[in-house]
Amino acid sequence: MQWRVLPALLASLAHAQTVTFRSLEEASSTSSSSSFVFNGSNSDIARQLYIRHQAGDTGDRVSLTAVPTVVKDRLDPLNVEFNDLPGLVQRAVLWDSGFAIAPGNVPVQIWPMGDRSMADIAVQQYEVSSVQCTFTICSQPDGDIALYSHTCTGYQMQNTSHCVADTFSDGAAATYLGNMWASGADPDVVPEIELRDHTWSENISAFGGVTDFSVYVVHTVSSSKEVAWGACPADGEYGAVSIPCARRDQFTDEFMAQNTTTPTGSAWVTTWLTDEFANDAYDDSFNLILLVPIILGALVVVGLGWFCWRRRAKQSAHKSTAAAFEVEADSVPFMAMGTPELHPTMMSSHPTTQGSTVSSHYESAGSNKTLKILLGSAQLQGKRIPFDSIVFERALSKGASGEVWVCEYNGQKVAAKRLLQSKEQKAENVQAFAEEIELSASLVHPHIVEFIGVAWNSLNNLVMVLEFFPKGNLQNYLHKHGDLLSWARDKIHMAVGVAQALEYLHARTPPLIHRDLKSNNILLTDQLEPKLIDFGLHDRYAAGDEVDELALEAVPDAVQSRLHSLSTNFEELPGLLQRAVLWDSGFAVTSDDRAMQVWTLDNRTMADIAISVEKFNASG
After folding, report:
1. Distance CA 146, CA 141 (A)
2. pTM for this one?
3. DSSP result, 551-601
4. I need a surface site. Which of 92, 119, 226, 383 has the fewest CB within 10 A?
5. Are 72 and 64 in contact (CB under 8 A)?
6. C-alpha angle with apex 42: 39 to 44, nearest 5 degrees?
7. CA dihedral of residues 71, 72, 76, 81 (deg, nearest 10)
């Protein structure tokens, strides 16, 4: 098939962004999140099933033709039988272990592409749009829209997929009229993991006549409840989530080994199973008398530890701040908020808010516009986080108007960006920050930092919560580990990821220009996937707007000479004009405020050194 030429490119795009609950896997936390919404933005079906199980929902048990070995091996140490688990838990374990259920209750293996997990193989709307598929747009009771793929060939749909499913038999494939992709769901839905084969033939002249298509799709509602292609759910009903996967028989073993991941299950699901369902296999043989020396030994250890701690507590107290700050030093330039604080304040609980005088400063004429954004924006619906649920741990960086903290929220490390808590903060700054928050919430792309939520207890205490990346930014990583990276394997992959993020921004209506693209505005995941951050400057360059003046280490002689003839100094120019003069004179500015000379080739000027997409693609 023609779409086979794309797997290599597809694999390079398949590395996933870290989803909101990824750190829960590492922390083995099973707490649910008020910010989690199962609507197609993710494929964390196990998380949704866990939430509905905790809410008291039930479902029929699954009687599989055979329980997968990987599931048995996962449950055996817990002395748990798959067939004894509740129906919702069965489905959660299957999905988390990398399986969906085909007709006849046949478990089918699914392999996420790249470094993705089963929680992030959902295909996003922009990805479906990017292959020129069209949509059926439907309304939902909560005011959001549900989307279904409408006009789309099998080639197009398979080129969006982030997973590969093993082959299976579906006797009703040719007559099944469900949708190949869907996004939108009842927040209280109990999702299925039903795998169907969409098979049809279509006369397409561009493909040489009648063409056969076969697309595997995971459906989260049963076939009997799935709306037909081209139709919308009945009034008062929600949409669904449908996830397309490529067929295993379209790929070689070599490709699978290099470009897919075999799920082993997440730690938080194992913790859930252990806490709620594990049986003690040793109850009958364990001698309770052995508890006596164990308890006594534990008491001795605890007592000695407490005594030593008391002696050293005062001696080490003054070192705690510096030590904690050094733990994640690579992350200090996070979010481009300026230079790191030399003495960050350590907070094991929430920072105190300003008094009523400061609050009243923010409750000005501009606050109405800010509240309209925070409370009325469609992008922020369901994204508000209780302020008291955020624990501010340490400051990472501080700039002229804002700061970034490492925080804990819902058992995971997150980054929190906020305005400085000062009386000098203007209402328009708060409004601009709210606009930045709204924009960040609207951006969904594998190479753009993920927005988690927004919190506030007053307008002067407005916080944007984002993914946290302990590896820090690209600038620091290249400085420390650049010699370990190759262009062919690493750097070009990072560059392509950033370019894809920019392409996504520029394809918006209206196009979005980042305006502050630099290496310390690119964060790195543990897999060295680039994540673009800091969209605070995107809308500050309209007519009449101002930006901060530059504080260069040294103004280039060429610029000084040029301005001297005009009887003016570089320091006296507005920030925008400073940047314009520097660029026009052949200089760019590094993240640490140094002007660096740029030389053009082929008699070009600074105005025409950009490389077109066509030339970039032609270069291979």
Report:
1. 10
2. 0.45
3. --SS--HHHHHHHHTTT--GGGS-HHHHHHHHHHTTEEE-TTS-EEE---S
4. 383
5. no
6. 100
7. 100
Which phi and psi angles does 160 have, rounded to 5°?
-95, -15
CA distance 121 to 44: 9
Cβ atoms within 10 Å of 268's Cβ, excluding its own: 24
Cα separations in angstroms, 167 against 17, 46, 64, 247: 27, 23, 17, 6
Please say whether the beta carbons of 239 and 138 come within 8 A: yes
SS3 label, residue 91: helix
Fill in the DSSP letter of residue 39.
S
User: Which residues pair with residue 244 across a beta bridge?
Assistant: 217
Rounded CA-CA distance 147/233 in Å is: 11
Q: In this model, does residue 561 exceed pLDDT 80? A: yes
Peptide bond into 510 cis (omega under 30): yes
Q: Return the DSSP state at 384.
A: B
Q: How far apart are CA 350 and CA 209, in angstroms?
A: 65
Nearest to 199 by CA among 182, 176, 218, 227: 176
Query: What is the spatial distance between Cα 192 and Cα 155, in angstroms, rounded to a whole number?
Result: 26
Listed range (47-61, 292-306, 591-605) with the worst mean pLDDT: 292-306
| Angle between helical axes of 45-54 and 267-277 (0-180°, round to 10) | 30
- Measured between alpha carbons, how far is 495 from 187 in angstroms, rounded to an integer? 37
Residue 496 main-chain phi, psi, to 5 deg: -65, -40
The CATH fold of domain 324-494:
Phosphorylase Kinase; domain 1 (3.30.200)
Q: Could you give the CA distance from residue 330 to residue 138 in angstroms, rounded to a whole number?
A: 45
Residue 523 and residue 292: Cα distance in Å, rounded?
A: 52
d(Cα 504, Cα 16) in Å, to the nearest integer? 16
The residues near 326 (Cβ < 8 Å, ≥ 6 apart) are none
Q: Is the per-residue pLDDT at 594 higher than 60?
A: yes
For Cα atoms 222, 227, 231, give the angle at the middle one, nearest 5 degrees: 170
Highest mean pLDDT among 90-99, 286-295, 391-400: 90-99
- Say if residues 460 and 419 touch (Cβ distance below 8 Å): yes
Q: How far is CA 414 from CA 298, 452, 464, 534, in A?
A: 35, 9, 10, 15
Q: Tell me the C-alpha distance between 530 and 591, whole Å.
A: 18
- Whole-angstrom distance, CA of residue 603 vs CA of residue 557: 22
- In angstroms, the Cα distances linking 434 to 371, 449, 527 are 9, 17, 31
Q: Are 516 and 533 in contact (CB under 8 A)?
A: no
How, if at all, do strands 242-247 and 163-165 pair? parallel
Q: What share of the chain is helix, strand, coil (3-state, %, to 5)?
A: 40, 15, 45
Q: Tokens for 451, please give them.
A: 């927005």
Q: Report pLDDT digits (tens) over 151-182.
A: 998 888 988 999 999 999 999 888 887 899 99
Give per-residue pLDDT as tens, 346-385: 343 344 333 333 333 334 434 577 888 888 888 898 899 9
By the 8 A CB rule, do 7 and 113 touch?
A: no
Measured CA to CA, the distance from residue 95 to residue 82 in angstroms comes to 13
